[in-house]
């Protein structure tokens, strides 16, 4: 093979200088190879540098991905559709080709019809034939490898047959861990894999950074093992178990050099021991898991030919989740707050603090209740039968995992993608700073009278990173939040608050409740296997202080009759210590209970149509605003919280959630 038979794909991300160094390395070591730079829209400086590099180098081409989540797998698959050569190599921004190494590998590459993938790099010398080939770097030979054997790939890259990679569906969109090359090989369903003992890419800086953080290595290993277990098809499960046992035997953690040697050795040994035990626990418990099909990864149509197959990705409902759930409870609970709640509950009742603590632990162990939920849902006054009906955090997670495809749900978790995907139903008055300059920002602000705008971080939820900023004209020009427009533009890019929205004018009936906040309806939908949309829950959320109506930040919430759009009962707060039912707003005095929400039939039509936009995301909590011209979608939450639902409805959502899961399993 020659360099003309190879395409090198690089994602334009990270520091622009790193991207320039990578392209310079390619131009020096492989001037005849094609190079594709995929633009990562979340890294504007790197994208600008990529455009400049493409204009300077003849064989460097740009690929502008379609709007969607900027995951490594998705960007690689976008580039894969433009590859016209038999072989493809994926590199990261900052990687450099080692001198004269690429030609040695290309000389050893066979026809891609006979081989699916070739690993180029160092390999563990555990088997005699591998050990014999290590010293032959000047005349490298191609050796078959079998990942079911105790083979350890230490450092290197994969040269993929373009046709084989397209047939397999490309890279898995759910796979996030790309530092472990061995993991990539185990998850891609290739059978004909070979190795050539030539180090192609210099990753010294990145490897040093990974080695300096032993804890990060342990975390990566655990995540890799979890992915292997959950995604292996049934016939590959023995191989997956052997792979994890092999990972458990490794000693890869290196302590940070910033701590003293003795402390470093103790810390490193503890991290290795703990990781090894967890990996062995995974393999021990894993055979008990019940497998079910999750979704299909379709083949990718490449520029060199049509794909011919697709593979099924299988996920497991893993009992390990139940075993690790107590650790999750310990980590996510504010125990000081729980202690205060125990004391306040004891003082308001005839029970001793020890009795309340004992009952709390009983609910946590038997019903998997989060300690804060015990007080939020007032479980101390509930019978055992009533407690069993409440949805736990573990059941909620299992419900979301079973109902929603994570790769499709990224559209809902990224507010920019949400605006693009749901443009028909959301406000079109927004600007994304990563696509514009300060002059475009000024034009957007002046295109209509504005005295205030909203700045959001596109990936943060729960009302965090949402800022209401005043807009004013001055002698020096526009001021946004008291800053000159150029300074605001730089600050917003640095902080990530790159999504700007105009302030929505809400309906007078809702503005009368609390004009400072945008008061919205939270409507939870579920899409059945035959694509029917059901409304499971509806609530009105009202602000009390500030600009936010979020239930978790001190706002009020009241139940809505889904059939009529009438508020059925008084509003409540999430704080367990506030047991007041607010029939009227505590600040404005406006009536809440009995309020008829405007355009309710249009609201139901809106969420019903929106629920079918992403069929792989089958349960969503929609936030809907009421405006004089009709309802608008504010956002969709694939990981909606159980607290709002169960705090307002009284009986828990657990039985209904289990019924929906059973229905979908039968339907799928």
Characterise the protein shown here:
It is a single chain. The strands form 5 sheets. This protein has an 8-stranded mixed sheet, with helices on both faces. Strands 13-18-14-15-16-17 form a 6-stranded antiparallel sheet, with helices on both faces. The protein has 668 residues and is an alpha+beta fold. The protein has 25 helices and 23 strands. The protein has 4 domains: 3-210, Spore Coat Polysaccharide Biosynthesis Protein SpsA, Chain A (Alpha-Beta Complex); 321-390, no CATH class; 428-502; 507-667, ATP-grasp fold, B domain (D-amino Acid Aminotransferase, Chain A, domain 1). The protein is globular and about 80 Å long. Helices cover 40% and strands 19% of the residues. α9 packs parallel to α11, α10 (237-249) runs antiparallel to α11 and α17 runs parallel beside α25.
Helix/strand layout:
Elements: E1 6-12, H1 16-29, E2 34-39, H2 44-56, E3 60-63, H3 72-80, E4 87-91, E5 96-97, H4 101-108, E6 117-123, H5 128-134, E7 143-144, E8 153-161, H6 162-167, H7 181-187, E9 193-196, E10 201-202, H8 204-211, H9 214-231, H10 237-249, H11 261-285, E11 290-297, E12 311-317, H12 320-332, H13 335-347, H14 353-367, H15 371-376, H16 384-389, H17 393-403, H18 406-413, H19 415-421, E13 430-432, H20 438-446, E14 452-456, E15 466-474, E16 477-480, E17 483-484, H21 485-495, E18 499-502, H22 508-511, E19 520-527, E20 533-542, E21 556-559, H23 600-611, E22 619-627, E23 630-637, H24 642-649, H25 654-667
Parallel strand pairs: 1-2, 1-4, 2-3, 6-9
Antiparallel strand pairs: 4-8, 5-10, 6-8, 7-9, 11-12, 13-18, 14-15, 14-18, 15-16, 16-17, 19-20, 19-22, 20-21, 22-23
Helix pairs in contact: 1-2, 9-10, 9-11, 10-11, 17-25, 18-19
